[in-house]
Amino acid sequence: MKTKFALMTALLAFSYAFSQEINPRLKLYSKKVDSIVFSEKTKMNKELDDLDKEYRDNKVTADEKQEKRAQIAARYEGIINGKVAEQKNQLEDATREIVKEAVMGDPGKQYLEVFSQNNAIITLNTDEKATKKELLKTVDFNIGYGLINLTKSSSSLDIGNNESGMKLGKSSSSEMDIRITRQIGSLTSPVFYRIGLGYRQDTFTPEKPNVFVQDLNEIYMADFNDLTTGTLKKFYLKNHYFIVPADIVWVLNPKYTIENNEKMLDNSKRNLRLTAGVYGGVRFLTQNYVIFKNEDNNRVKYRENITEAAERFIFGGKLALGYGPINIYIKKDFTPNFNDLAKINNKYGFQIGLELLYINF
Question: Rounded CA gap, 360 and 347, in Å?
Fold first, then answer.
């Protein structure tokens, strides 16, 4: 069964890679051209708006305004033509190789248990059975997924407000952690500490038809229809972090057992848990995505890195209530997700979510 599963996984991975490889070169080139035009036109419109403001403030005459508009348009036309030519050369010279290998060694003897030991969804041990004492020390892999919104301050819990400009229910946060859990005190103690290392991804989706726009080092939200022609499909900004979570876990309904003449907490039984913790992390990437169909009905995916407007470090707190393998949590970022270069009203993240997968090794 394991061999069949591995072969099916490898076949699916190869099929995906092959489908990516045969994408027409011309279609890829067209998407890149549209992305370049979208980016440069956004910058050009910002300069034209500034010029209109100067005209309204009587800083330039009508003739000077027309002359400067022509100069701005000519300059961006040159920039676009240069970047398009560069992309064309890169595409003509590029070669793509995709290699997928699956190397399977001797997996050894393993024991798999579902919805049983240590309140995990899956328990995987190299031994046939873990002792009750061994279950009090665990290493696990955890995946959490929650809805996220932005609040006005570090103490605010007002996630349904309209000031954030985010689409409620469409912005999300996911996290994957490797964690170790150890008991505090004696073998009968119902208190544990947990520390881990993980990856977090926050996805912010503005209210349609607003999209995020970067101008120099600033970001702000603008109407997509004012930036370019076409039909807006998907649009979001993603923050990526390395995260270190640290939790204290209280078992609220402890059950006990005796093993080798030692009394200890029985962690093989489902228990009710209260968790309080903190987390800190460092942002390593922020990207803005805009996916739309242009006038020719071609799908365009525009992506750019956000360099300065997102905060580098993040710190926050967590409260969770769990039973068995189910864990519901809330998280509050005490530091802002964005700094003063982000021209948005609310900047502090707040999450409500569920830990989806919990695997013991």
Answer: 36
